[in-house]
Specification:
- With about 100 residues, the protein is an alpha+beta fold.
- The chain contains three helices and three strands; from the N terminus they run βααβαβ.
- A three-stranded antiparallel sheet has the order 2-1-3.
- Helix 1 packs across helix 2.
């Protein structure tokens, strides 16, 4: 019996794997919801202090949108569904 090591070729992998890039949740301005209500939703859903919730609401109001959360895709999907449940217009996308 020979005790020489066996040479094993490395497998050829052609799949390109991208790192798990965080996703962001964007709330868009709408003509329906009151600013006080949007502030309340941010406080209720995310537990943001009033000052942070008001700043995000003002970004939505003045800039047309605001990034209100980020994280894994599944959590962002759930956040968007919850925001829709409160009547806010929200989307999620990759953070680039």
């Amino acid at each position: 019996m020979s005790s020489a090591p066996t040479v094993v070729d490395e497998p050829i992998v052609e799949d390109h794997v991208e790192p798990d890039v965080p996703w962001i949740v964007i709330v868009w301005n709408d003509p329906i919801n009151l600013m006080s209500y949007v502030t309340w939703v941010f406080q209720k859903l995310y537990g943001y202090p009033r000052a942070k919730a008001e700043k995000l609401m003002m970004d939505v109001h003045t800039k047309g949108k605001a990034v209100v959360a980020n994280g894994p895709r599944e959590r962002c999907e759930a956040d968007v569904a919850a925001l829709h449940g409160y009547g806010l217009w929200a989307t999620f996308q990759r953070d680039r």
